[in-house]
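Subgroup meeting minutes
Present: P.N., E.W., G.H.
Scribe: E.W.

1. P.N. recapped why we're keeping a running log of single-chain structure predictions: easier to compare across weeks, and new members can see raw inputs and outputs side by side.
2. G.H. added today's entry (206 aa).
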Amino acid sequence: MDIDRVSMPSTSTGKSHLDHRDSRASPLSKNESEEAETDSEESDVSGSDTDDTSWISWFCNLRGNEFFCEVDDEYIQDDFNLCGLSSQVPYYDYVLDLILDAESSHSDMFSEEKTELIESAAEMLYGLIHVRYVLTSKGMATMLEKYKNYEFGRCPKNTLTKEDIDGAYFGTTFPHLFLMTYGHLRPQKAVQSYTPRVFGFKIHKP
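Output recorded in log:
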């Protein structure tokens, strides 16, 4: 398969972050600083823009990625944990270097189009790794903290009395395994049933 012809969606921000740490560290003039501040306000990145911000922290702090937890570098560096993923993600080696903030000797040779493909592939690979990580004891504990902090939101449904909601992008096993592991968090049965009404009148059941 010609890997250069693989079509992938653009990144969340639509900007290049292949070398996001170096771009933040470069000196700026007054006008450039003002433009950078404007861009920062428009950006989805939240939190501190320090030189030592890792790609994983940057990605998890993007608006819309709040449900993701930060996967340990040690977990990603273990080839066993990533078994089978290299065939699913284009530019796998470059993408893995990007996620782990490893310097690539060929990064300066990439075209803008190829850079965008690598960035998009990095998001996809991290998601695939995340699915596996949240099933581990350490990943489960991390998700428990997010659950306790209501980072998954609360259900607005009337009869659920604002129960916690499990997030998405965690695979089909995680929600059930999570509640089996932490049984005390299992939702209780509703004490009242919802009665649908139209203009205050109960709907007739045929």
